[in-house]
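Internal ticket #5521
Category: modeling
Description: The requester needs a full-assembly model to guide mutagenesis choices. All entity lines are attached below as received. Residue total reported by intake: 829.
Assigned to: D.W.
Attached entities:
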Amino acid sequence: MKLPAARWACLVALAVCPTVPGHAQAPASSSTPADPRVGLKPGFRNAGEAARNMQLVATLPKPDGFFDPKAPAGPVTPPEQPAPPDGATAPERDNNDATPADPNAPPGTAGAQANRNPTISFANSDLAFSGDLMFVGNFNGFTVYDIEKGSKPKLLSSVVCPGGQGDVSVYRNLLIVSVEQTRGRVDCGTGGVKETVSPERFRGIRIFDISDLRKPRQVAAVQTCRGSHTHTLVTDARDRDNVYVYVSGTGVVRSADELAGCSGKDPKEDPNTSLFSIDVIQIPVKAPERARIVNQPRIFSDPSTGALAGLWQGGNHGPGTQTSRITRQCHDITVFPDIGLAAGACGGNGLLLDISDPVHPVRLDAVTDKAFAYWHSATFSADGSHVVFTDEWGGGTRPRCRPEDPLTWGADALFDVVDRKLRFDGYYKMPAPQSKLENCVAHNGSIIPVPGRDIMVQAWYQGGVSVFDFSDATHPVEIAFFDRGPLDAKDLILGGYWSAYWYNGHIYASEISRGIDVLSLTPSEFLSKNEIEAARLASTSDLNVQLQRRVTWPRSSVVSLAYVDQLTRSRAIQPARADAIRTTLERIDRIRSARQRGAAAVVTQLDALAAQLESDARAASGRDAARLRALAATLKDRATALR
Amino acid sequence: MLVQPGAPGQATRTITATRATDTSAIQATATDVQFMQGMIAHHAQALEMTALLASRTNREEMRLLARRIELSQSDEIGMMQRWLTTRGQTVPDMHAHHDHGGALMPGMLTPEEMSRLEAAQGQAFDRLFLESMIRHHDGALTMVNDLFSTEGAGQEPEIYAFASDVDADQRIEIDRMSAMLLEILK
């Protein structure tokens, strides 16, 4: 989230970019004309809910210490001002709760007092997972949950250590947390730092030892010039002694008196400026207290001129286009070490990086988009062949899913990775129009590992959670959703989902204001029981969403059946062939060993079916050809295991 | 269990919820309030400058620029007014900076400079407008810098985020205006 907002980019939209008919936020093909998400009842704990093909299985309010008891939902976000007609006078504010309050009045009486602590002091943020544990970042620290039973998370500890945004990653017994605000203290204190320059201030990444989950200990704290808005864990298969962290800082550069070498100057004035780079931190796994910055690569430079500011300079792309931010840092980076690539969402550009040497990332490609205001985050498809970039138009604090908002603005842009370059395929935006009291724009999500398809679950702040299929990246389609009404009936209160991630069978969603929600997918015409079950089987021992790994599925009939369901849905398999595969899989599931009666016959059947499928694949094209081949491979694999 | 770690190497202790949510030390300071009040006056003058533009320029990109500045600054003015009001502080009148003897915030035009801009037309206006607005925006950067250079100021999360944003936005606009000015001077 960018706070408080990239405010004006959006307003320019209304001024110079009249909405193109048919492209505005309105019930689209993937949502019905009467979308149940429209017009939901407002409320903090009792808002109206709408769901399709997914259900809410658990909801947990934020624990004590992580909300303001005087304003549990959070304070009101000031409304945007319509453009003044004469350009000289700001319009009168129309809210009636604006009576100046006596600053000495007892707490909780006047609206002004109730709003003293902005919600960004206590907002829930990103999530990380390890085994049966879930770590929930918060601007005031982090919380740890036991999710052995996904439908019944148990709070283990609440750790107070303010500084925002509280982006979290976990590696074995280490938890890494981002800190960016000037209030951050080395000692996790809540009192801020009074002095302008102080060794007590902390902005950067904190490293906690979580061996004792009830009492995590801070073991290291690496200071950076711009703090850490987000960070990304990076592992290197050839360097097991260290893990790396890419730090993206978006805040104000601090004084060199506080941290040596910091400079906020223009690169033309100071070639050593702290802007126009990312920080690469090395953490020795066995000695995390020795963590340090090992590189500040100039990944935005122009190789021909050597200029550090070599990418998008800020501004719009011509009449009717969005105004994109200048590229002088990344907002977030997602790495995929198994394929040596990273995707950077970096203000005005989307980047593809070669990270085969993680300390020295090399830019392979940089793209712009006429509809993007702020390149915010990136997600690779399970095989790394596509990238979903998000645009945080309005900074996350603004309503950007109103009926008049274009469906290509504040959306996801989907790219194909072709010859180590990014090629644009299409846009996806949660299609249901939201009210002006709901901050809404594309935000953090993760891949749901359904074999044979590209499916992602994504948080849209108060626009809810949306699950979409981008197997055809030129035509993404929503297949499931969950949404609540606005937090308040009268004002916009910052809230909604920051992150929604699939982890071993459930969708865990961190709600900024309300707490944690756990959701599950239900079978539908868009997604079968076998496909959901196959995704659950692709289980992982940990999950840091910005560190993607190659997905593998176990040897199981459910995985084969997921492909059969897909091929049946797209009519790419003859019903008789599909039946034969189902029957054979039922038979093989009853056979325990190669010596068992009938084993040889089943093996023969599997081989024959696989051969037929491979032949079908040669006549097919696109995803169906790949599914036929993948299905054949699962059958051959079962046959091999039985020989 | 609610706990609070210490500095690296130090022990983790328990903490009460009251202390965990005590943000009294990171509330807005007098400097923060003055920053917001001053910035309203600063932004108000930017709107007066852009209001002159329509009848004096022939360039479409100047109109677009002005529109963008109007939208962003009026939006920010609303945000600042709200910020001050919710803290029970005085919201300055939009035209307070016209008062004689009132101190101008950094980068602001004097009444004489405003009159000169008002009297200009066409290319001469465009040039003077860009030069003045670059200086004006540069003043906002100075104000942000002064804020963050004052003890205890800029700590409260909302003002921290706001001032960071003003800094980023105005730098972009300065870059754009500088490029436009170069184009005009060619």
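Resolution: model delivered.
Comment from assignee: Residues 28-185 of chain B form a domain with the Ferritin fold (CATH 1.20.1260.10).
Ticket closed.
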